[in-house]
User: Fold Glycoside hydrolase family 43 protein from Streptosporangium vulgare.
Amino acid sequence: MRRRWTAILAAILTIALVPATTVPARAATPITTAIYTADPAALVVGNTLYLYTGHDEAPAGGTNFVMRDWHVYTSTDASTFTDQGAKLSVSSFPWAGGDAWASEVEPRNGKYYWYTSINGNGPGWMNIGVAVGDSPLGPFTDAKGGPLISDSTPNSSPLNIDPTVFTDDDGQAYIYWGSYYGVRAAKLKPDMINLDGPVVTPSGVSNFWEAPWMFKRNGTYYLAYAANDSGCSQPGYACVRYATASNPLGPWTQRGVVLDQVTSTTNHPAIVEFNGQWYMVYHNAGAPGGGDFRRSVTLDKLYWNADGTMQKVVQTTTPIGGGGGQPPAGTNHALTATASTSYVSPWETLGAIKDGFVPSGSADHSHGAYGNWNHQGTEWIEYQWPTARNLSKVATYWFDDDQGIDLPASCQVQYWNGSAYVNVPGQSACGVGANTYNVTTFNQISTTRLRLNITSRTGYSTGVLEWMAL
Ligand code: FUB
Assistant:
């Protein structure tokens, strides 16, 4: 019972196989909208990028994970992805009972080892299992007949999930895993299905929550992982921090945040170089109908600094559909901005305007909303960035609660020109329509501050669900 309750907590806090379908996903994020996907792991073999993902099957409004199998997606351009089908499922592990959580695939000697988080269906709860196949697409079968790591493994994590396996240049393989702030590591034997020596608790992986991803670049070891400290994410959400080390078992030095919180409560990184470009692969709740248990894998480019640190990834928005009730395409700089306002009602959430949520209508404040009831007249919301952003468009999704907050009478976009706020040049109409992204275009500006002046209708206050800066 304690374990089931723990499962629900984890869900809140963290957070017969089907044939391939070869319908390409859109050449943009998310990699597919045909199903909900989560917990990506990336592997490059030859000229193909393989993404191994979990599969969210929770119903709309569901409050826990429903995950039964894992899919494989392939791409040769990191843009269009093909679903190769569910290549592994809970039923592939006869000793397991459910919960096909995060996984990762590691090649060795012509074989592909697929490490999974899975419910052992016995004493204890989540385990690490391992399947093996002869190609990146399998077929995969249980490699061990039981868990590789379980609660009975000495010094195991408080929650044995989220394996990441890394093979060093000398052939030694390492497995990192864990959740509930309990990162663990061990060497793997050359057979890849047995631990080689004790489980260690690597030092220096500060603020670790779960979802480790290990790799090496230019002789330095990198460990990215989900963290949920107040320095990087709102309560209940997670960012991705990373640490570096000169030894595969540490000690590690934490280097900061590489991915801000996303629109789902959980966050889960995979970092990979493909065709000379580095990518951050992760999930969010951005697909239509998405949510914390209906996530979607997406990817964005990742760039390096000369000193080997990673630049924070800019989360791009999804150009699915475009227009109408869908957000316009382009890089939404709101995601990296600090928001402020002339006034927000104490019970409302200013940060909601920049969480990338796609509202189902102007009354949909399920992800929070900015509102200034009971003020009337002109109020403003504003974005600030530490360095200038090139901007030429905003998209505003108004909040209308059919009570004291109504659509505004008018609005105007302004920017800080170094000494004062002035209207953005060449501004098109500032739309005040309901149930849509009102797009206002202007001549490109470079600024650290962008402001939206909102003037209410007589007798009403105003509100905003999303304000995109592109
Ligand atoms: O998908 C289930 C769990 O949520 C994963 O194992 C965690 O990493 C989090 O993404």
Summary: The domain at 17-319 is CATH 2.115.10.20 (Tachylectin-2; Chain A). The first strand starts at residue 36 and ends at 45. The chain has two domains: 17-319, 333-469. Residues 14-15, 38-39, 54, 65, 101-102, 117, 161-162, 210-211, 266, 268 surround beta-L-arabinofuranose (CB under 6 Å).
